[in-house]
């Protein structure tokens, strides 16, 4: 039985390694082509690593006057940070209410909240656009940031609620005996003990906001308000066949996400797998 268990473990590890390599292939091709010059791309295989890696492609992308990646980066960073803060605040408060407070119809309202996850976003796209148009928010960052402060999304509320439910009730009872209010319990007990869960929601939200293309495409008309995803599409239109520049621009768009993931990887994985409180 020990031999069978070891064999099964080896097979699982081999499958995971193979899957990881498959997922890394597009990333390898992107980086290798971003580090090649045009002549090397035309004369060598796409799978080959550049003989003389160069950063000239990245400098050319950043210096392009028709697509200011510095401006696109600032816009994307502003939207992503504000949206992430809004989601963490609003989803945390809503999840705390569903997990720790007792009120009439709590479970029914939570089921109604979860049912919104079944509604495709394409269904609400036109009504939402009309609403923002009447509010005069079109061509501003408001449609991409303000909604984050009103709920934070059903999935995020569900994730935080499940984490809050795993925390012992004795903490709340002890806090009540010391005269703490629900607000104090949330900010002084729940939030400090839920760092992994909030980090998970924060990473999900930041990546989703950073990679959002449809939202900025619908609501932003001014070229100076474009995000990186829109700017990448603009750059693709300007440099249709210059693959070394397109891959360099794509790598620049992905670089912040890779850094954030590796910095928060420990908290991110911990928040996903953790099922109990301290």
Defining key terms:
278 residues; mainly alpha; 72% helix
What is the residue-mean pLDDT, rounded to a whole number?
85
Q: Mind telling me the C-alpha Rg?
A: 23 Å
Give the termini separation. Answer: 35 Å
Instruction: Count all strands and give the number.
Output: 0
Helix content: over 70%
* Biggest sheet character: none
Order of helices and strands: HHHHHHHHHHHHHHH
Instruction: Note poorly predicted spans.
Output: none
Count of alpha and pi helical runs: 15
* Oligomeric organization of the protein chains: single chain
Give your account of this protein's structure.
The protein is mainly alpha-helical. The chain contains 15 helices and no strands. It has helices at 2-34, 38-43, 56-62, 69-100, 106-115, 121-134, 142-145, 154-165, 169-177, 182-190, 195-210, 214-219, 228-238, 243-263, 265-273. It is globular and about 75 Å long. The mean pLDDT is 85.
